[in-house]
Write a structure and sequence with these properties.
The protein is an alpha/beta fold. Helices cover 39% and strands 15% of the residues.
Length: 455
Amino acid sequence: MRSTLLPDYAATIRYLEDLTVRPLLSREEAGLKRINALLAALDHPERAFTTIPVAGTTGKGSTTTMAATILREAGHRTGSFTSPHLQSYRERIAIGGVPIDEAMWVSLLNRVLPILERMETNELPGYSSGRAAFLEVLWAMACLAFVERGVRYAVVETGLGGRLDPTSANTAGVAAITNVSLDHVERLGYTVEAIALEKAGLIKHGQHVVSAASQSAMRVIRASCERQDATLWEVGDSGAIQIRPQGDDPEAMISILTPLRLHSDLRLGLKGAHQRLNAACAVGAIDALVTRTGVQVPPVAVAAGLAASRFHGRLEAIGERPQVLLDGAHNAAGAAALAAALRTLYAGRRIVLLLGILGDKDLKAIAGQLAPLAAAIVVSEPPWKSRAGFAAAVATEAKAYCSRVEEQDDPAAALQRARELIANDDDLIVVAGSLYLVGAIRDLLDPTALEANNW
C-alpha cells in the first residue's frame, strides 16, 4: 500500500506507465466491472454532465474535436477526452479546448489513487476484479475534472471498440460511430462485422446514433439500433444525413443536411476530403442533441465550430521550406486517407516520407498506401518500446515501392536525415505511420505548444 501521494507530474507519469506492465484481468473477464466500481467509489461523477461518445476505426478524434468546438462556439462549457496523446498525457483531458495543467492532473490522480490501491488488493466491498486498467484510470480522472470545472457537455473519443471501453460508463443520449474497418483485429475481431459489433456495443436503449459506416458494418449497426430501440441517422447519399459539395475543389464549402435542419456554406478547418464524413457525423451528433434536449446551438455556431476546428497530427503542416506534414495514418484506412490527400492537396510536390509503424499494425497495408508516393523514405521507430522494433520489416515493405529507403531508429536523427534528403525548398517531409512518432516529431518542431496554449 502506498503511504504517500504522488508529489508531481513526473511521478504520476511513472505511476501510470508502470501500471500498464502489471498483471491485469482480461477485458472479457472484467467487462465494465472495474470502471463501474471505480466511478461508484467516486460517487459517480460521470452522471453530472452530458456525454457524447464517438467511436470508429478512423476519424473519431477529428469528429470529437469538431463536435466539441461547435458546442464551445455555442457558448457551452465543454470538455473533451481523446487518445492517444501526441506530446503530453494532459492533452487527453481538455476543457474549453485547452489541456488541463500539471497541477490539476496531479490532483486528479491523487484523488483516484486510494481507490486504485483498494481495487488492486480487492478490498472494495463486493469487488474482485483486481487493478484498474490505464484508460479506466484516465476516464475517471476526466470525469472528476469535468465536474470540478463545471463542464456541461463532454465529447468523448472511445479508446478501443465500444462495448467494453471504459468511456461506455456514461449516461449518453447521443452517440456517433464514424466508420468501421480492420484494426486491432486481435482484440476486436478479424472481420469488419465483428469489429462493428464491438463498436456498436456502446449503443444504449433509446439513444440517437449517428454513423458514417458502410455496407456490412452499417448493417450490424442498424441491427444493434433496432435491438436497443435507438434512432439511427445514417450519413450517405440517401441517408438521414447528407453531404452536398458546393464546388469541385476538395477544400470547397459544403452543405450538411440533417433531419433537423440544413447547414449551408460550411468550410472545414481540418484538411482532406475524408473530413467531410467526420464533419457530417459531428454535425449530426450536435443536431441529435438539439433534437433530444432542446439545447441551443444556432447554425452560426455550427459553421464557426467547423471552421475553427484544429486537430494536431492530422494533416497538420508545420514550417516552410521545407514544410513538414504530420499525419498519424496509423492503420490502413488512415493511410488511404492520407494518400488521397497527398494526391489532391499536395499534387506535384516531391515527398520525403518519415515512416514509423508499431508492430501490431498492418505494416504491409500502410506502407503500400504511402511508400509509392515518396521519392525517398526514412524508416524510424515510434517511441513505444514494447510495440516498436519493426523498422526493418517496415523498410522491407517500403522497398517494394521506393528505391531509396533508409533506416534511422531515433526520431530526432530520422528527422535530420529526412531534411538532408530534401532536394529543393518545395519538397514536403511527411511524417506518418504512428501517432506516437508524430508526437515525438511534433515535440521537436514545437516543444512548447501546450504551455503556450497553442493547442
